[in-house]
Amino acid sequence: MAFVAMAGIIFGAFPVFTSVFNLLGGNTDSFNFLGFLISTGLLIPVILVRKTGFRLPRKVLLFSILAGIANVVTRVLLTSSYVYLDVGVSTTLHFLYPIITAVLGFVFFKDKMPVYKWIIFAVACLSVSLFVSNSSGQGNAIGVILAVCSSFGFATYMLIEEKAHLTDYDPFVILFYVTIVSCIGSFIFGVGTGRIFEPVPPKALLVLIICAVLNNIVGFALQLEGIKHLGAAMAAIFSLFEPVFSCIFGAIFLHEAMGARSVIGIILILGSLLVMILL
After folding, report:
1. pLDDT at residue 106 above 70?
2. Which of 219, 213, 243, 251 is nearest to 97 (CA)?
3. Cα angle at 225 between 62 and 4, to 5 degrees?
4. Given this model, what pLDDT does residue 272 score?
5. Where are the alpha helices (DSSP H) in 197-259?
6. CA–CA gap between residue 193 and residue 205 (Å, rounded)
7. Confidence band (pLDDT; 50, 70, 90) for 132?
């Protein structure tokens, strides 16, 4: 549980890194592509130092590629939804993925979970909606579709990691292939928009490097370990630390207002996770 909780805290800083990067003159397409590119480069010396090698069984390599596709599709869909919806609304819709992970696991893999856990799941996921302020705006259908599809994408990513037993292998080697595929996918998308060719200011690049290390490497490695010990569905529910700390980090670093609704949402989510732990 600790692995997923720490990953959630790290991932909670992602919107802050994205916002700061954009404020410093970057754009989301460059953020995605360069972030994955930097992560891929940094993983090479990590793997060499650990002396685990880059080899994977052919089947594992195939599923790592599929996980990379699911990962980059999720990232592109989510960041694209920001164009049509407020970030708070997009984030709320994206965080349907814990319950989607559980449902997909039940439908396709016959994963079973006690009724009380389904109830806790629902309470925790619905509590995320409290992070959306009354002034967030309704956006439009395109943004809603993009954000909801991003939740299906990430649920698929987590299930691939568990069901294909990718967690049985070195997490940094798995991440290496995931980030390569994500890098290629985000490059193709960025070429289509033409935005990855825009110059990135040095300060924005520094923010990107920090995010690449924390989010794309450390965070995802911790999440892999969490999936290994908890399974995809339970790891997904503990990932709800992410919107909690996203709200907290936003208040601290971006001076975003955190009203009563957000505080209630935090209490409900943490309470749900505590009950899940105790039961």
Report:
1. yes
2. 243
3. 120
4. 78
5. 202-211, 220-230, 232-238, 241-253
6. 20
7. low
